[in-house]
């Protein structure tokens, strides 16, 4: 079944006419959101490399992803990607190109998730995490060193979950600039948000309040709080507006938002579990359907609510979600870091770009193709044009 959406149009001709004269009133707030998913982060990594190449075609070889987004949000492996994209060099320019994201997975993936240490039963040990997390800590510290959240070249938003306090915690550049106790090392935040329960150990670190008191964090995977962080990103925008206007800000106008949301892939739908089957399993076998159900529910609910908000403002075209929903076999694994699987995930990402644009159906809640013949690659190319035009408006105003 195809969604009927006659106004779905990524053509920029009308937008270009409207914005022919640079004006801050016409500028949009731009958001990049990246899901969690372990080594499957190489899927959005591949898409981001394509996007950055498109931006360089428009604006020159020095263009970087972080130049174009007011907010870059990431959960778990998406948090790592966000940190890599927004880390500054000595000239306060983005330190890494988008192509280096995939290099990270190829170089460090097999060290973080050694294939020979994968247990035979879907990675479910008893009593301790599968992997010791040393390679993840080493990799994050090597790449990000002592960069703190306040140093990032754009506003980064990374959710995590504090296992000691049993509450979510959201790290952001804006909070770090206003509260010294929130100004954690970017490497620590990335290690913590990527600490997927069962696979990797929780991460402990400290910051200090202005008066010297210690603030402690015992954090695990941000996917526990928000597997898809797009709403967290937009809430951070609302919070900033509220603070700037001293509590008098109007509700967020989704017509002024331009949002790109990238998934790490979901397993192909199949009637795999039933109450009768799982009720016969031991506790540890419950974890497979439990995790898949939790993440699928989080991805689906967040996408549904985001799409509904944009639709209520008649601005569906401002929200682009690119997600593979048909992963099968070894591609589903979060911790299979063999070259063969990574190569396969890159191929899946490239194939996804050539698939028709899809959007959640607000009636059935299914992720369905949109009529019009546009592929994700087409949509990404026009999204790049919007980002480029928007940056010119920003610089002009």
UniProtKB/TrEMBL annotation:
Domain of life: Eukaryota
EC number: 3.1.1.-
Motif (GXSXG): 74-78
PNPLA domain sequence ranges: 32-234
Record's keyword terms, sorted: Hydrolase, Lipid degradation, Lipid metabolism
Motif GXGXXG: positions: 36-41
InterPro entries in alphabetical order: Acyl_Trfase/lysoPLipase, PNPLA_dom
Active-site annotation: 76, 221
Segments carrying motif DGA/G: 221-223
Domain observations: The nitrogen atoms of the two glycine residues in the GGXR motif define the oxyanion hole, and stabilize the oxyanion that forms during the nucleophilic attack by the catalytic serine during substrate cleavage.
Family: Belongs to the patatin family.
Main function: Lipolytic acyl hydrolase (LAH).
Name of this chain's protein: Patatin
